[in-house]
Design a protein that fits this description.
This protein is of the alpha/beta class and 216 residues long. Helices cover 31% and strands 24% of the residues. Helix 3 (73-88) packs across helix 4.
């Protein structure tokens, strides 16, 4: 069952979509260059929505108004938190998942104390394009929930040697390597369908394991 709704906070409102009716929630945030209606986000939302999981996507304010320029981080985080609060009304536990920028916003929320059962990070942007010296890692020292990372070995926003140095050793991180994949949905024989299938299969297995207490 698909439901369309609005998420509101302060004087802001964005649209959201809920799929499924399970007791475990997965909040799925889009990356900087897409929105919740992008075919890859729709396919991922539908794939993750099982009898056990309720999945919600949402737009950030800039995509809601049709802009391609992301909002300031404070505004993105306020929207993300409001969306998480809305999904929390429907479920017993919640995972924060997201692709690229959306996943990064989830890590900041959890680092600031937002309650989540875990984090799922699809193509985490470890550094800006061409700026491997500007690592986005400071928040991970404050995160104490299980994390699942999907890392393409040719991701230009997450150089493999830096990922192996700063992310892979994190105590609560599990890593799914996509050999040859770039930051997008291609590379090394991968396409959008294959990557989404891998995302869905591995995420469902991991979420089930964490929810049952079979992983730290």
């Amino acid at each position: 069952m698909t439901r369309h709704l609005l998420v509101s906070w302060d004087d802001q409102t964005v649209s959201a979509v809920i799929e499924g009716s399970g007791s475990t929630g997965i909040l799925l945030a889009h990356g900087a260059g897409t929105d919740q209606s992008h075919p890859t986000m729709v396919a991922l939302r539908e794939g993750l929505a099982t009898d056990d999981n309720t999945v919600m996507t949402f737009n950030y304010p800039y995509t809601e108004r049709g802009s391609k320029r992301p909002d300031r981080q404070e505004k993105l985080l306020a929207c993300h938190e409001a969306a998480a609060d809305r999904l929390a009304e429907e479920v017993g536990r919640q995972f924060l998942a997201g692709r690229s920028m959306g996943g990064r916003m989830g890590t900041y929320l959890v680092a600031d104390g937002y309650a989540a059962a875990g984090l799922v990070l699809y193509a985490y942007p470890l550094h800006p394009p061409g700026r491997p010296d500007r690592l986005r890692i400071e928040q991970f020292g404050s995160i104490d929930v299980p994390m699942l990372f999907f890392q393409g070995t040719r991701d230009t926003l997450s150089r493999m040697e830096l990922f192996e140095q700063h992310i892979a050793p994190l105590a609560r991180a599990e890593v799914e390597i996509l050999e040859g994949a770039g930051h997008g949905f291609r590379g090394g024989g991968w396409d959008a369908t294959k990557i989404i299938d891998r995302y869905v299969e591995r995420t469902l297995e991991w979420v089930g394991r964490v929810s049952s207490g079979r992983t730290g």
